[in-house]
Amino acid sequence: xxxxHHVDYCPVRDILSRLSSKWAMLILITLNANGTMRxxxxxxxxxxxxxxxxxxxxxxxxxxxxxxxxxYPEVPPRVEYNxxxxxxxxxxxLEGLIGWAITNxxxxxxxxxxxxxxx
Amino acid sequence: xxxxHHVDYCPVRDILSRLSSKWAMLILITLNANGTMRxxxxxxxxxxxxxxxxxxxxxxxxxxxxxxxxxYPEVPPRVEYNxxxxxxxxxxxLEGLIGWAITNxxxxxxxxxxxxxxx
DNA sequence: AACATTAGTTACATCAATGTAACCTACTAA
DNA sequence: TTAGTAGGTTACATTGATGTAACTAATGTT
Lengths: 119, 119
Fold this sequence. Notes:
Two copies of one chain form a homodimer.
Chain A: H1 11-19, H2 24-34, E1 37-38, H3 39-46, H4 51-63, E2 67-72, E3 78-83, H5 85-118
Antiparallel strand pairs in A: 1-3, 2-3
The first copy, chain A, binds a DNA duplex (30 and 30 nucleotides) through helix 4.
């Protein structure tokens, strides 16, 4: 029986735990779609993310080098975010997942609805 | 500014919220690697998943038609799990993500380590 | 002097996900 | 009759993720 992980440390689990936060993928996709964006732009684009969670999530993405952050020393402050090369490299795989979701969700929802009726 | 989601309902968020549980992708990958497996096989293969979380996660995967469940009316019970066609369709995209993780994690870890030193 | 601006931070509350341990069934073997 | 088996479930505790609201800095505008 093949076993695809070390219980100790697994890079896949590691990266998935980052991406699987509620907002991470959404932010990456948004930045990819729009290019460079300011903090408030991202927040408006996503619509229902709190200031706090946007800040928190951007920090972890920046920490892992997926997102770049550029501060302009102005008042009021201006901060621009963009995908790094590494972040861009991740996009095709996220889009693969998204494409699959869009293709398959209608039927999944359909089936879910039928199951709810029984319950 | 492009906006890729409805705040109300978004199939991508929906499916991601399922996949981004701690164990879901791992179970899918494990089933893909091994074919049909029994409950205890999956648990042993993953190694550190609790009985409860394996049961819970398998239920949601089954609910969305990604995993099939076949019960043999024997004692002690025998239950076999396998990927459905839909589940198999998801695998290439998961593997894309995994491949990216394996490729990129070494450098990410390297950078993290350097940042820790400063903190 | 008071107000608006942008990009946050902080303390705190709450909700969701996960973990632990005990229990269950129905049958077989010792 | 007691123990073992496979595949769970249940109640409960704990951890982790997310949300809310108030606050901040430094400057320009009214």
